[in-house]
Amino acid sequence: MQLISKDLLGLKELSKEEISLILDTADTMRLVLSANSKKTSHLQGKSVVTLFYENSTRTRLSFEMASKFMGASSANISASGSSVKKGESLIDTARTIDSMATDIVIMRHQQSGAPHLIASKINASVINAGDGMNEHPTQALLDMMTIRKHKGTLEGLKVAIVGDLLHSRVARSNLWGLSKMGAQVYLAGPATMVPPGIERTPAILCSKVEDAVKDADVVMGLRVQLERQQSGLFPSVSEYARFFSISEDVLKMAKSDAILMHPGPCNHGVEMPTAVYDSPQSVINEQVSNGVAVRMAVLYLLTSRRNQ
Amino acid sequence: MRILIKNGLVIDPVKQSREIRNIYIENGIFVSGNGFVTDREIDAEGKAVMPGLIDAHCHLREPGFEYREDIVSGTRSAARGGFTTIACMPNTSPVCDNAAIVEYIIHKAEEQGSCRVLPIGAVTKGQKGSELAEIGLMAEAGIVAVSDDGRPVEQSDMMRKAMIYANQFGLRVISHCEDMSLADGHMNEGIVSTELGLKGIPAAAEEIMVARDIILSEYLNIPIHLAHLSTARSIDLVRMAKDRGVPVTCETCPHYFTLNEEAVRGFNTMAKMNPPLRPESDREAIIAGLVDGTIDIIATDHAPHHADEKEIEFALANNGIVGFETAFALAYTWLVRSGRMSLEKMLAKFTTDPAKILGQKLGTIDSGSPADLIIADLENSFVFDKKQIVGKAKNTPYDGFELYGKIVMTVQGGKIRYEA
Fold it and tell me: Which chain B residue is nearest to residue A198, measuring alpha carbons?
C-alpha cells in the first residue's frame, strides 16, 4: 500500500486507509526518534524545500528536523527574504524551486488552495503545511497519532474541539480526518466563529463548551487570534475566557482519563488557564514530539511513492 | 449589399411565432421581397433565423485594460456569439463618466467594431458613489443607461438622486446589488466555502440591496433595472414587487442557471464571479424566475480577464468569466432543449426585452428595422473549445461542454459580421 497522490494537500483528499498507513508509519518513526542515533537513510539523496509565506515555529522546525534525521538535503525559503518580496508570483516561485531538482516542497500560505495551485504545476510533491482557513493535514495527523497512542483507537471516540472554529485549518483537518476514522467530533465556540453550513458536516455543534466536553475522550483547544476581537467577533478577551475557555471545571466534565490537546501556540488564560495547560491530562508537548514522527512518515511515504 | 436568406425557420420574438420563410436585406435594413435582386443568397434550410441578440451587460475593458479585451476583440467575440448590439459597462480606466469617453467608445466601435456598441455611463463620478456623473451630457452623447456596475451605489440617498435625475433624461439606473459590508468573501457562503476554507459571501449581501432598490423604485415610482441576480430570495423580492406594480426589471446571466457553487471545488478560479455561484436550490429558482417572467432578460456579464489574473491563488483571482460566445448555446441547451421554455420566449429575453429596457427600437425582424439577425444550428450538438474563442481572454468554465445552439452566421446592419 502506498499513498495515491503525489501530494499531501489535505485530509479531505485522503482515504481512511491512507490515513492509517501514515499513522502506522509514524509509529515506526517514533521508534527511530527514541533510538540513540536518530539518523536514517530514507531520504538519502533527496532534496526538500520549505516555502513558508507565514510564520511558524513548530511546523517548520519539525519538517526540517524530520528531513535532516532522514538524510535529505534541505533548504528553506521564506516569503520575506525571497523574490516574493519583488512581486514574483506563486507559480513562478514554485517552478523556480521545481527547476532545481527538488523532490518535495513543503508549503505554508495564507491563501486557501495555494498548495493545490502549485501542486498541479510542478513535478515535485507538495506537502501542505497549512493553507489559509482550509487545512493543516500534518497537524491533524499528529493529533490523531497522539490520540491513537493514548486511546488505542480512534473509532468511537468523542473528541471535543473548542475555540475559533471559523478561521481554524486545524479544526477543519481534524474534523475531516477524525470523522473518516470513526470518531465523533463535537464543536463549541463563539457563535460568531462557527463556519456556515457546519450542520451539514459530520460534526455536532454545541452552544455551550460544557456540552461539547461532557464525557469526551479528547478535549482540544484551538488558538484564538486576539486581533479577531477588533473585527467584532467577540467583545473582549475576558468575556471570551469566561465563556469559551477550557477551565479546570470544564475539563472535569470530560472522562476522567480524557487527554487535553492544543496545536499551539497557546494564549494562556484565554484558551485555557496555565494550570490546565500544565495538568497531567495535557499531552501538548507529546503532540510536538509526534509532529516530527508524522512528518518523517509523510516525507518517507511520498518519497517512496516517487521512487516507483 | 443585398442579401437573401432563404428557407430558414424564422423565429419572431415579438409575435412569438415561427415560420419557414425568406428574409430580404437591402441597405442595412429588412425589406419585403417584391422584385428583390440579391448579391448573396444564403440557404438556411434546417437552421433557425432570429433577430440579432442584444446584451445589456458586458465589459469591453477599453479604455484602460486593453490587455484583457478591447472594443475590436470584444465586438468580434460578441458577433461570434450572435450579438449584434451590446451595452458596455463604464468600469474602464478612466471610468466612462463623461461625454468624451462615451463618444470615443461609440466612434471606435462604429469604425472598427463588429457590432453595435451602446455605452452605459457611470452613475457617479469615478464610480466613487459621492457625486453624480454628467448623466445629461452623456445621454446627449449616446448612453443608454447608467450604472456603477462592479460596485454598488452604497448610499441610499445617492441612489435616490441618481434614479430621479437619470429618469429625467429617459434613462434607468442598472443597479449592482451588493451590501459591501457583507460581501467580504470569495465564493458563496455555505457548506462548500466551509469545506474549502474560503471566506463566504452570503446571499443576503445581494438580497438586502435588491430590497432597498425595490423600495426606492416603488417610493419614487421610477424604473430600476437590477443586474445579474443570483439568488432565490432576490427573485422572490422582484416577483412580489412586480405583483404590486413596481417598475422594476431584472436580469440574470447564463452561469447562474447552468452552474452552482460546486463548480468552485478544487479552487477553480474559472468559477469565481461576483455575485458568486450559488447552491443548486438558487439555480433552480433562477430558472423558475426565467420561466414565469420574473426575470426579464439574460445578459452575459462578459468579463474578460488575463490568464495571469485567473491562474493565481483563489482569493486573489479576479471575478468573472467571458460570456459572449457561450450565452446563446447555454440558454438554448439549459432552457429550451430541456423543455423549460419555448425558443420564442427565451429569445425575447435576448432581444425585444433588453431592447425595451435600453430604450432601443431593435430586436425585431420587421421590414424597415435594422438588419440584425443570426442563423443558428439547433439540431446538432457541438463541443465548446475555449481555444477557439475569438476574444482576447479565455476565462470560461465551459471548456469541453457539449452544447446545442451553435451560431453559424451573424448579420448586423446588413453586413455579415461572423460566419462559421
Answer: B191
